[in-house]
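Appendix C reproduces, verbatim, an entry submitted by the partner laboratory led by Prof. M.T., so that reviewers can inspect both the input and the predicted structure.
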Amino acid sequence: MRFEQEIDGKGPQHGESMVDEGTSIASFSVLSEIATGSPQSEHRKYFTRYTTQTDGKERLAEAITNLAQTKAAKVLLDLGAGDGRLTRLVAPIFDKVIAVEWNEKYRDALQLLPKTEVFIESMQDFSFQGDFDMALMSYSLSGVPLDKRTQFFEKLFRQCSPNGCVLYATYADGCEWDQFSSLVSEKLGRERSGGTGIHEAELRKLNYTVNVVENIRTLIWGQSLDDLGDVLSFFFLDKVKDYQQRFVEFRPHLDRLSFEMPDGRRGIAVTECLVEVTP
C-alpha cells in the first residue's frame, strides 16, 4: 500500500501509500474503535485522524501555488481529486479548476468548491476537452493502469497549453517515513507501489522525461511515540491486525526514525516531491 493511495481520501482504487516497545493492544484506540466497521468507515476514520496530525496538504498546496504563479497558470486539471482537500487549498489561485474523480461519493464535496467543474470518471478516461495550464496527480498516478499510461499522457500533452505543465506528487524514496513504511511493509508481506523510484522507472520506459521541481519536507506527528504509531496505522489498513499485534517489533525502528518536537510531540519527516513529466 502506498502513501499516495490514501493521502487524498481516495481509497484503495487509486493506488500509492506512505506510513514501535511497550505498546499494548489497548493503546491502539483508533484500531479498537473501527475493528468491526466497514472498509469505507475504517478508511474514513483513519484518514480523518491522519489529516489532523500532518502538515502535508498545506505544504504541498503552497508549492503548487508558487509554481502556478510562476507559470501564470489559469486552468487546473486535478486528476484524482478525492474529496477535494488539496483542491480546496489551491483553487483560489486559478480561474478554473477541472476536478476528475472516479468515486461518486465525493461529487457533492467537490461541487461545493469555487470555480470548479466536476467529472465523476476514471482518470485515464477523463472527458474534459478544453486546454489547461497545469495538470496535477496528487498521489494518484498509480490509479492509471500501466498499459494505458501512454494514451493517457499523450492526451494530456495534446491539451496542455504551450507554457503549461503536467505534474504528479509522490514521496521521496529513502526519507524517514519511507524507511519505516518499507520496513513494516516487508515484515507484513505487503507490496508497495509509488514513490520517486518506481514512478520514474515506469515513465522512462515509456520514453517520458521526469524532473523533480520541488522537494517538500512535511511532518506527521503524535502526542507520543505510541500515538504516532497509532496515527501511522492508517497506512497499513489492509494489515491492521498484523500491524497492531506486531507493533512492539516495529516500535524501536519508529523511535530511531522519528524525533521529539519542541512541544514534546513525536514527529516523523516525509519528503514529498512535485515532479514534472515531459514528452
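Residues 1-37 have pLDDT under 50 and may be disordered. Additional entries are available on request from the coordinating office.
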